[in-house]
Amino acid sequence: MELERTITLAAVGSQFLMGLSGAMILFVVTSGLSFVLGVLRVPNIAHGSLYMIGAFSAFSISKLLGGGSFGFWVALILAPFVVALVSLISERTLFRHLYQREHLMLLLFTFALMLIFGDLVKIIWGSDYRSIMPPDLLKGSIEIFGSAFPRYNLFLLLVGPLVAIGLWVFTNKTKIGKIARAAAVDMEMVGAIGINVGWVFAFAFVLGCFLAGLGGALVAPTMSVAIGMDHDMIIEAFLIVTIGGLGNMWGALVGSLIFGLTKSFGVLLWPQFGIVFPYAAVVLVLLLRPKGLLKSVW
């Protein structure tokens, strides 16, 4: 006998907020991937591995400092810089020699790099599940729409817009951001006026990977930090940048909201098959808008 499910307004409101908070994590990671795609035209499959390294680095830094609120906040700041350092080494030694290669070669190369990073993470941290406790300020929950909503998820709702605004200011209001946009359009012309395009590309790549590390550090208190967490993320991230528009930051935000909310409401409406809903939304968007919802930079 099939059990009837009663969906209340409180449940809808709670799932809406949960979907939004999940979308913010997705956006932080996919905004970095979209930025790299937009400037460098590199489909970096290893982006998910850098997200995983960010989560494990946050765990190690927090544990080294004894955990607690101080350990969490320091880990949240330092873990993305650990990922940025890893990405800078990768870019200077490997990526900078491949920017002009075909996308298929770049896909194969970054896939191989993803496997290497996965093995390195297993060697350094092992295969055990790890976890990080949120700081005291963000522990527990508050009542919203008649349901308990985690304080940490409210924090995530603030982080996403701040990242979006920060990226917009960087790309539109700063000199290096404008140079990066110009180099994406005409690399030879930017180089002709005396600008070191190689270092501009390196900065853009590191910034995108920094956001992957930030996403990993942010997600650590909400789920188990484990080997393989990069696989699901990179699949979702590429789907999001595809439906949003390749290289379009605001498209990444819209795509993240679609993915996060459909996933959340799918769990509410049909828990056994809730994971199907965001992928069905992706298929629907691509059927109606094959090039993405917003303008692609490619």
Please bin the fraction of helical residues: over 70%
> Total helix count?
11
User: What structural class do you assign from the helix and strand content?
Assistant: mainly alpha
Output the helix-strand order: HHHHEEHHHHHHH
What's the total number of strands?
A: 2
- Based on CA atoms alone, the radius of gyration comes out at 20 Å
Low-confidence stretches: none
Compute the separation of the termini in Å: 52 Å
Mean pLDDT: 89
> What does the largest sheet look like?
2 strands, antiparallel
What is the molecular shape? globular
Strand arrangement across the biggest beta sheet: 1-2
Percent in strands: under 5%
Task: Describe what this molecule looks like in 3D.
By secondary structure, the protein is an all-alpha fold. It has a domain at about 25-230. About 70% of the residues lie in helices and about 5% in strands. It has helices at about 10-40, 45-65, 70-95, 105-125, 150-175, 175-185, 185-190, 195-220, 230-245, 250-270, 275-290, and strands spanning about 140-145, 145-150. It has a two-stranded antiparallel sheet. The termini are far apart. The model has no long low-confidence stretch (mean pLDDT about 90).
